[in-house]
Amino acid sequence: MKLQTAGIHHITAFVGDAQQNVDFYAGILGLRLVKKTVNFDQPDVYHLYFGDELGQPGTIITFFPWPQGQKGKVGGGQVGITTYAVPPGSLTFWSDRLTSYGIPFTQTTRFSETYLSFEDHDGLQLEIVEREAGAKSTWSFAGIPRDEAIKGFGGAVLYSGAPVKTENLLTGSLGMEKVAEQDGFIRFKTPADLGNIIDLRKDPVPFGTEGTGTVHHIAWRTKDDAEQLEWLDQLQNRGYHPTPVQPRQYFNSIYFRESGGILFEIATDPPGFGLDEELNALGEKLMLPEWYEPYRSQIERNLAPIQVRVPEVKKP
């Protein structure tokens, strides 16, 4: 049977200050900090995960705060825009909220949908769009009603250096359906309710530079470890060079760079973020994999303290 991803599992980006990152995604956008851990390859750097109440696939954005990192340039070979979905009728709430925090935004249209387009403090490009699909959020924070809260990813806009090859990968290997083409974008759809709409810039985009304010990779969902091994075989047979399976504590991953330069990951839905914390306490403690536990005191000393809080409103 042909493999087909259900859509986005998570998106990972580089940012600067960790507290500023928490203030923006938890305090302003109202996402839940579901896991506070470290970069497994560089434990002096946080790895922060934000999502819905349970941190379900299709809602998770993760960050490597890199205070001394150089500013990146958004461009080809990257996810250009990360899109969030909110319930129909919520855009006015969100435009008022962005205004109250002094965050500039523009209103744009793509495929007959209206988007609020804005940037976080590091220049990461974001959008909010109203969508019927996807269950409403069960998480409420910082004065955001559940009826207007972000549900999860609406999708993403891919900036490829080789769009035709990227399109062939999305439809031929990842099993996405091409559903529309308009105004320089090609739209693809997956079966999930969230993280299911992918727009690809039709023309090649000049390559960007990795750094703060840019996306490092986008991860696609696979249901379990057995199916992930099927993906591994399929990608190898189609000439890609995926990594061996990498344990990421809360999911297992394989990585490969597609022909347009974007780093893709295929991540398992299980075991999820309840693996090492009670669901009602997700994100409250610094969680470390067992091989770093002997070094906990040293690791904690090297990390600036952070807290989930409501940032001060600038324009009440």
From TrEMBL:
CDD domains reported for this sequence: PcpA_C_like
Protein name stated in the entry: Ring-cleaving dioxygenase
InterPro entries xref list: Extradiol_RC_dioxygenase (IPR052537), Glyas_Bleomycin-R_OHBP_Dase (IPR029068), Glyas_Fos-R_dOase_dom (IPR004360), VOC_core (IPR037523)
PROSITE patterns from the UniProt entry: VOC
GO MF annotation terms: dioxygenase activity
Keywords: Dioxygenase, Oxidoreductase
Origin organism lineage: Bacteria, Bacillati, Bacillota, Bacilli, Bacillales
Source organism: Brevibacillus ruminantium
Xref: Pfam families: Glyoxalase (PF00903)
Domain of life per record: Bacteria
Domain VOC: 7-131, 152-269
